[in-house]
Specification:
homotetramer; 365 residues; alpha+beta; 5-stranded antiparallel β-sheet; 7 helices; 23% strand; Chorismate_synth_AroC_sf (chains A, B, C, D); FMN (chains A, B, C, D)
Chain lengths: 365, 365, 365, 365
């Protein structure tokens, strides 16, 4: 089954392929009365768009978002106000080089979705990976920009914390650094290390995996739900839906397997302001599937892109053994551009749960 | 929002609390014509039920499943045949000791859902954790037993691969050992190590985390879907919905972050039988969200239960600082009993995708 | 596809057949903090239960509801308080006479679901119609009793307005009469007419259709939504899901086809209390799919039951021509017992939309 | 809640307002391998588009559909082949005259959604009715054109059977006439009557209601499902979601209330070809919510448009009494243009159920 909608009340439906005229999304369920500008949305798009450094694909796309419905223009001629009806957003594809893909129309690139798509559908848009292309994630970022407006006071930020075996030093974490380098790296000491490391990989036509950490702050307590709409479950679902993601963890994640109950328990005390205080955040801000008011912390792993210059053994659609190397423009580390996408999925998931809790109508909120 | 249904076409709705008269589930969307016996279902229940060794909670529940609807009895008086209508299953609670929980009616156990439930609902069934109790998972195992029948030829097995820092040696992996020890451990050399280790934890009234690996074999290629119903996404969602799970990975998972594109690519060759062969399974049997026909491999981490004998700092519902220790019967390592639950969620998820692909009707299948 | 859940946020999943041990429902999404007694729920059940007059089936069922989960008992030992977790309700089948159905195990009763079920599923619980039996509606009434508690101030009432060609005189409408006669008839002058008419039908072993009108008052304005969750659309869906219903209309319904725009427009004026007043209610309380605050008015038609004593031409599962007459206990006018069921579906639909608007959480409401 | 998606597996999400730059839809869940041309889709659009006779609104829209995703072009450069990914379709608004609507920006047109939208959302796109405009239905017709391709051998046709009190003579029914007059009237003798009648209404600036009948032939038996996804229930839901529809009936509909069980039962006999034959079709092709293979017959009533030249009493957003007359371009009988829309909703609903039954994947079908 093809299924291209994410969310239950804040519903994002994305459409479009890498090499068609355009791609986009419909954001349905957005409450009325939200105020935003095109420039605000575009700013998030610009974080994700390709071609911004030598460490990401050299495809050139401006990724300009057009809003086709669901808003009225305020008197200032710039601020859009959501009306509660679906917001349709469209992004044109401008830099398509279909000739790059001619050779792989019938060969399956190892590690790519080619083989699985053909098995499932019996037909496949091989140009740029078609629907399995990471270009689909542009629409997610646009939707995420709207989602950020849904939850008042929420901040969602992400950073790259590991490339290959090179992990940041968490003691150096500085959110202010994240947008100051081409890696969304919060540790300034790690930047030159990654630079050298990725240059080597890039020149070799190879690729490498990475880990992204996403943190949402200002999330109201009480969001999420037992049993099958747990906030952590749906965050995991959202992050795992990103291309190339192979693992997700919340709070301490896999490390919790090595903790004792004493160490893992986030103890509490009443604060001077009469508000509960947690003395630690092993849980990643979620208990029993419900937000506690602490920062929500998730991490996800992105595998290395399979588009590499080395030949790999494979087969083609006719059942022949073939050797495949990918000559198009690709990312040595797709994890870099996954950073704003992870933010978008986190923002959409929390917005969805916020609306489940609070309802969707303007007047009654 | 309370949401207690899992799945889209194979839909499992669970209900019931730890200390009510019963709990159960409704399995809706089950295709007609499946044949099974109560004994088959009960066998899976028995794997999960408490009180089977000193390493799990001493609560005594027989967890006898009754089937109330959705089947006709075959002439043998034993085999049930699904009719395509909802299968309602009920499990009575027999060993409830509400007195154990009196003290924590208003105090929040650190690491438990108590605080989050009160924040969300303003009312909480404190007896045994109410709906957040792991007893809910009995219903999942019953549903999973049905799910196994939906996909012909599918086998779903799980094993415990790590307790605390003690990891199994994968070279010793022997599925035949898994049901021969109280840990569902596939490595016979690790069993005595875990035994000694957990005895220490148990006697100290402490607890420890663990990691479970689930493997589904015989899964048809082509299940799953782009973009927001990826098979790995939904497996992650299912596993993350299990109590105390904090992390999920597919295939190489987090380790993929450290791999190069060359190493990560699962190369292919045509086999002698004319079928494609993968030379490795880094992907865990899923590419682009779609099953490839390889075994599907997932792992998940379970945090240590927060029910421990040591006092922990907390607050109560009236905003007082309190110290909490949990005196009820509990599991030193809840990861053990998570093994059959992980199997059940994997089976249900795959069954759901199988029906999306194949449709649900008897005659047309 | 088998699909047995009604509603989006207030979700009712029903299960059970006419001749199994029990039937029931799970009400999921019910907000916490609702207060009700078993007696209140039972009162609605008693309106629907069979055997209450000679004009309905003589099957004897007490239809006693048991609540298995989702509530805590208040200190008075009688009032239940919803906790926000799923409410499982169970009703035992006590008067099953499977022998009555032996002859039709393989013959298709004309007008019944027998033929369609066999075509779809290839297997059919012929005993009492199995899942297609009107006994399923007992679970709806139980769910409706909860739904009534969800929307503060809402009243949902229904009445029978037509049997065969005998229509009530609307000038005689008296809600106080509805529960004073075996027909839920609001027109006391019509009662003796229907009595005589139905006695004739009953003695002839025949059956007749009817029309029910449902009115919901005290429904907040602003419920419902464009475009595909219109309140009238979902009311139509709910009512059309009742067995034997063939038509639904809102407000003037089919009569609107004969009205001019001038006559159909519900004009408005500001009332002395500063609230808008509608001068008529052709719309049935819904404009653009959204409630206006006026009473919501719907009508639905129920076909005559096909279980009649006269022989009808049919076929059997082996492809033979057969003649079928139904000898079991049946309703001369199933429309009578549809009255409380129509109320339940209306209540559930409005509760669902209420929660969409207001959210589901206790603390935040 | 705003909800703009119709269908479960064949999912149509529509977006766009009457006066924005464009409107459109995303058709998700369409199986791969369907073949169609733009011209085929456009032909259905042309049936619905405005300005085709003096009896419908004089708004001039070409309603040209663009397909932005989800298809590959066949070698003929004309035939599109669906790939199984979402099909995004876009229709530009070209004839918008916002000045026509200035006066009603704050006044509520009686019978329109204006008041309800303001109550719900607190903000309203008053230009042309915004999202509540019938222009939204252009997207439905485009989706319906795809849906027709999903079910092999299915034909869906509709006709106008009543305007005001003027009903067609069913004995004159001729499908060949339907596209030969501006009313989609199947009775050639009625055409001049309606012509004269509607001319009078048009010149008076008034409006009138109508009834449409939709018939689907070639629908496989076995589609639909108990209990809450009955085929008739979902057809009712789809038709009731069309603007201005107030009533829906299946088969004999409301007339079934006056039938005896003997008359209503559709008797059966085995045909000479070994296939079952129904001797009548009171049921409208659906029994127990499941298609029988007979033609599926539904009717729906459309109220008169509330946009009329006569002044009607109303209020404005500031709580003043006002008198409103609508000066824009409008339809004297919106029922006419509802004919292709009714076809589209029927086609989409059946396609959805077809995919539920058969699954959605190319290779496995």
């Amino acid at each position: 089954m093809s299924y291209n909608t994410f969310g239950h009340l804040f519903r994002v439906t994305t459409w479009g392929e890498s090499h068609g005229p355009a791609l986009g999304c419909v954001v349905d369920g957005c409450p009325p009365g939200l105020r935003f500008t095109l420039a605000e949305i575009q700013a998030w798009m610009d974080k994700r768009k390709p071609g911004q450094s030598r460490f990401v694909t050299q495809r050139r796309e401006d990724d300009i978002v057009k809003i086709l419905s669901g808003v009225m223009m305020d008197a200032d001629g710039e601020t859009m106000i959501s009306t509660g009806t679906p917001i349709s957003m469209l992004i044109e594809n401008t830099d398509q080089r279909s000739k790059d893909y001619g050779e792989i129309a019938r060969s399956y690139r190892p590690g790519h979705a080619d083989f699985a798509y053909d098995l499932k559908y019996g037909i496949r848009d091989y140009r740029g990976g078609g629907r399995s292309s990471a270009r689909e994630t542009a629409a997610r970022v646009a939707a995420g920009a709207i989602a950020r407006k849904v939850v008042p006071g929420m901040t969602v930020r992400a950073a790259l914390v590991q490339i290959g075996k090179h992990k940041i030093n968490r003691d150096n974490w500085d959110w202010g650094q994240v947008n100051e380098n081409p890696f969304f790296c919060p540790d300034p000491e790690m930047v030159p290390v990654w630079e050298t490391y990725l240059d080597g990989i890039r020149k070799a036509g190879s690729s490498i995996g990475a880990i992204v950490e996403v943190v949402a702050e200002g999330v109201p307590a009480g969001l999420g739900a037992p049993i099958y709409a747990k906030l952590d479950q749906e965050i995991a679902s959202g992050l795992m839906s990103i291309n190339a993601v192979k693992a997700v963890e919340i709070g301490d994640g896999f490390a919790a397997a090595e903790l004792s109950g004493e160490d893992n328990a986030d103890q509490m005390r009443m604060g001077n302001d009469g508000q509960p205080i947690f003395l630690s955040n092993h849980s990643g801000g979620i208990l029993g599937g419900i937000s506690t008011g602490q920062p929500i912390v998730a991490r996800f792993a992105i595998k290395p892109t399979s588009s590499i210059l080395s030949e790999r053994q494979s087969i083609d659609a006719d059942g022949n053994n073939v050797d495949v190397r990918t000559k198009g423009r690709h990312d040595p580390c797709v994890g870099i551009r996954a950073v704003p996408i992870g933010e978008a999925m986190m923002a959409c998931t929390i917005a969805d749960h916020f609306l489940r809790d609070r309802g969707q109508t303007g007047k009654t909120r």
